[in-house]
Amino acid sequence: MDNPLNIPPLCGPHARYKSRNLQSQAAHQDALKDMPGGNTRSSIFSTPFPLTIASGKDGTVTSLEYSTRLLDHFNARIANAVSVAMACGSTFGGISVHKSAFAAGVCQRFGEAGVEMVRFANSGTEANMVAIATALAFVNGRDSGDGMSHRKNKSKILVFSNAYHGRVVTGGTTGPAATNLPHNFVVAPFNNVEETSAIVSALDPPRGNGYSRSSKGGLAAIIFEPMQGAGGCGAASKEFACCLRQLADEHSSLFIVDEVMTSRLGPAG
User: Fold this and answer.
1) Could you report the per-residue pLDDT of 142-176, keeping only the tens digit for each?
2) How far apart are CA 218 and CA 185, in angstroms?
3) Any keyword Nucleotide-binding (predicted)?
4) Which of 155, 195, 189 is nearest to 172 (CA)?
5) Assign residue 74 a region: left if phi > 0, alpha if psi is -120 to 50, beta otherwise?
6) DSSP 3-state of 238
7) What pLDDT score does 67 carry?
């Protein structure tokens, strides 16, 4: 197998890992029978196989081999809140007081960042799918105020190299992943202000004193991670983030900030 990055072989460490985690290996082999890759999402896989977690409490999770990792799981307050809510029933197929109260709490916490309303999703993947669909509908259906029709003109979604917004919205090093949703994705280099600005300008070329915002196939939205998870936990520079905000404003596009990784790091994300 090619090794273009010249990464040293891990035969020794892998052998020790396997010998110490035989139960996790067996559990992984069993999981492969029913789930592609033996998991619900590829982001939790690690070679040669992932540890299988048996339990978690406070700051510790325990694997089948009874080894531990320092993480925060089974917080007592959260567990109690879930128990109280479950005692009232679940999956009503209608509006519940708990859901409304939770939505109000989320909006209050992130209000400083401009969050006015919230739509709940089951995963980060689903949330980003809804965000992109909403952006396309909003940008192409709104009235610009200049008498020009913008309906069904903008279709391109800007993503970045090594981005991960869920299994069906990712950016490779040179282009969108083959497994992506059939949106019109354009990939720009992460943390590169000059090249990203040039790519966006090419999507909506300037005309006169402004941009050709009604050009067919123009930029509908930018989706961006302040810190890339799958891309190696690389943080965006303040200059790059501000540049994206400005580009979205200039081109009448929406700026989607994917904070699956970073929202917990500050009171308002």
Assistant:
1) 655 554 444 558 999 999 999 989 878 887 766 77
2) 11
3) no
4) 189
5) left
6) helix
7) 64
The pTM of this model reads: 0.70
Cβ atoms 63, 24 nearer than 8 A = yes
Which of 14-28, 71-85, 234-248 has the lowest average pLDDT? 71-85
The whole-angstrom separation of Cα 242 and Cα 239 is 5
Q: Letter for the amino acid at 252? A: S
CATH 3.40.640.10 range(s) for the chain read 118-265
Residue 196 has pLDDT above 90, yes or no: yes
> CA 174 to CA 208: how far, in whole Å?
32
Of residues 190, 129, 193, 187, the one with CA closest to residue 157:
187
Q: Give the CATH number of domain 118-265.
A: 3.40.640.10
Orientation angle between helical segments 238-250 and 193-203, nearest 10 degrees: 10
